[in-house]
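Running log. JK asked me to keep both predictions on one page so they can be read side by side. First protein, sequence followed by its tokens:
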Amino acid sequence: MGDGAMKRFSSRKLLVLGVAVVLAAAGCSSGATPGASGGGGTADSVTIPFTPEPKSLNPDWQNDTGAWYPAGNIYSRLVDLDWGATAGIVAYPDLAKSWDTSPDGKTYTFHLREGVKWHDGKPLTSADVVYTYQTIQEKRYPLAQYLNGATITAPDPQTVVIAFAKPNVAFVPLLAQASNWYGAILPKHLYEGTDWTKNPANTQPVGTGPFKFVSWQRGGQVSLEANPDYFLGAPKVKKLNLVVVTNAQVAMAGFQSGQYPFVADNLLSNYQQIKQLESGGGDTTVVRTPSLYGRDVYFNLRNSILADLRVRQAISYGIDRDAINRTAFAGLWPPDYNAGISSFAEYLNKDAQFPHFDLAKAKQLLDESGHPAGPDGTRFTLRLTNYPSTDSTLIAQVLVEQFKAMGIAVKWQQFDLTTWLTKLGTGDFDLSTYYVRYGPDPAAYAEHFGTGGPRNFTKYSNQKVDALLAQAGSTTDVATRKQLYNEVQTQLVADVPYVNLFTENKFSLARKGWDGFAVQSSAFGKAMGWFSFYAVHRTS
């Protein structure tokens, strides 16, 4: 949908959209599928659908969601994090076999594994890590926000030292998480002295990861093969074919026919069907994976209407999370009312809650703010955009109707990821669904709500919150950090720069007879990233 495009959906239309996924092929009443149990590949070869088409196979120089799956298997990172983070498994070794932290929390010394080789046979050294990170800093590529102010050196070929002027106690877990997207360590011998955006290695990548590049058929698939020299041992799957599938119905049909043993959450849109499959038995496993993210509504405080606290409070009263859950998610997404998420309970202030649904209170506050309803019931008009994911789109569809009930006309605008991020970054929006990140360390609050934070698209600024965040980010004492982040959450609920709606619920499908997908608990702490298939194997 192009810029300025607008759609309105009733709840009935939304339900029709959700049920449209090839139910005849699904056999969803019983969970049965046409393929044999354990279908979707052989012990040596597996085919996985993913979306969207990559722009490049170098993930570091732009925010390219299509590159995440191929790059997550071709390259290695300094440290890793997978979905085990919600189970207490935070950063763990990748190229760094271990690391030390100085007592003041300013300096991190990483010790690299010995004998690691690039896929072309060249040895990996600390020079590759330093080159990658320093170039990212210099060019202000996406990972630079986590390396801001860092001095990066290599005292010897197996050691990398990253030092900050101030304590940065959350550095390692946040680096590990962000490295899933755009923190691949690149070969200095292939990239030095070149333009990263045009380097031929972007389409013929050379990494140190568990799989080696074979071919890339544009619009078709990326083919990889097992790396027999991988430093943790060769993967059990010998051939990995990543097939570009942009349509959820096509992905589901392929899974049902036994073509794919796994479908990730971003290719599932029919929650009624997921609910039926979950209770239907058969050879399909519905995988529920806890997340570190919420689903929420961001307010652009530069908008004169939304700058009024009473308007933001009114909107928070007028959002019916239960109705969104029923209509969009078939009851599978329980509402959240806190300025945090249930899956990261260690730092959750359960007493700091956004209001529960009260439409009369919402209308009262809008009246008091000087926005009475006009003859047609409309008070004012706002633009709403959404993160381009299935769940955020479903949420936005229902929000359009709920805003209308408050007397707020909505122009719903949808964009691709790059355009959407640009719109948020330049302030060219009024409201947006978003995904506040609450872990793997609560220091992530500073990204979203600290003055000048890289994800503070609301332009929220509160000196008290800034002081709390700075103090919490410089102490390692858990009790003190909990107290400080509790105060942050209390202030966020009072100021309403955003409204949290849900903890993200990730649902994926896996064929029985396969195990080790990154979203499964059996792979926590050893998947080698969110998008890696290193741990995948046949069980029958």
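And the second, directly underneath as requested:
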Amino acid sequence: MKNMWKTGVLLAGVLGMGLCLSAPPAAAQNVYDVQGAETPAEQVEVLYGDDAIRAMGGDPAAKRSGTTAETSAGDFAARGKETASASAAPADGKGKAASRTGKAAKTSQVSKAESGALAAAQAAFHASRVRLVWPVVPRAVRYELVLLRGAEDVAANVVSRQDYIYTNGVELDLTPFGAQAGRLYFAVHPLDHDGHAVAGSTQPQLVALGTPDPTAPLPTTQFEQMDYAPLYPVFSWIPTLGAKHHAIEIYRERGGEKKLIRTLQGGEYDVYEEGGYTVPGRYDWRVRAVDEAGQPLSDWSDFSSFDVTAPTPIAALGDSITHGGGAMTVPPGYLIYDWETYSSVPVKNLGYSGDTTAALLDRFERDVLPFSPRVLVIMGGVNDYRGSTYGSETVAHLEALRAKCDMYGIIPVFATVTPINPELILRYGQIEAPPVDWKIHRDYINHWIMEQPYAVDVASALEDGRGWLDARYTTDGLHPDGFGKYEIGARIGSYLAAHFAWVTDGLVKKPVPPALQQIASASLP
């Protein structure tokens, strides 16, 4: 698999994970991976049909006609959404599971309809494989999935454990468990790089509520929830059981038809797009598992889509800090580690992982001009100063970028270069060690930036007392995680709104999912 952020990261043995709720973008808050199912009842109805509706005390005919009895599956579905919402609540910033309150979250008050739904699922479940998904946990590098013989996550109930899961979903082989598979529960333990818990385990769920015998990988990107699709998308998915290679097809919609424009070869979990999408239109992509020779091992997934629009009034040119990704294993393409998510105004993501300021300069005309931004946020230099580029060279490149903006009538807004944490970089050994004088060059760059007509300081919000990237904001020592991306996005958004109201006042920001909004109010770990 390709380097996670292509900034010299050497992720030997570390694989990408999908950091969104495992469903197509239109249903990203779904804790079940059957499209349109948001509760146990809805999942069972989709998977097992009229028998499930009857088991939950409902009338299939009434359900199809749009009416429901007082104890119908529809009534349970409404209550089930409260349960799903509570069980999907993220951990707080202190690494403790968020408390579950309210009647819907209390297992002692399980309704008759809910019991019927679970019984229906257990009775109808006959599968040799199952796909299980779970809510996202901030700062989780990997997950451990535990199969349980009962609804409590205690040692006495443990049947098996599977560690080193780098997505928020997995396909399991159920053949060792035979007819008992449908009666098992599963819980997920979110872990850091070293295997320590970063939050409490998920609420145990029935294995039978998973997707039985899935026929294709499950896309996990969140492009449609973003204000704008990223210029360089990273496509990711929950893989087919045992598959190490995947094929991806990208289509552009023209005249009501999908036209194949690109094919990509991916690894186990994701693939980085090398070519930017600058032509306006709607694009669709799908993925399937293949063997080393490229022969199919699964069906194609359903299509996921993203739109390319132009012009975009505000854009951001940068490296992996702008491109996205975090927690060591999470590739770009997910809201939680994308600072544009937390900006109060919509910003087009023109980031490309691994870029130096020289690379930003080289691709300016190709990648910036098609979107005709009035304001361009420029944040680059971390890959310069942590390498062999002197601060004076970086400043020369930034001056050239400023000149290009002036030439094309674009207002440049420079953001200070983020710090790094050498101790964490050396501890994990997955990123090239920086030179000993890195901070001198970083400070030189930031001094120049803060002298510009339009400049926003994001670096100071991320620093500890030594001027390093605060360990609470990062996992690998280079890339800010959720709290860090929030600080960057919030500061840039506030600056843009205050200085360019004539641009921002007419822009509409897509709503940020409530689970991510809590990052702003949560305490640092």
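Observation for JK regarding the second prediction: Residues 1-32, 67-109 have pLDDT under 50 and may be disordered.
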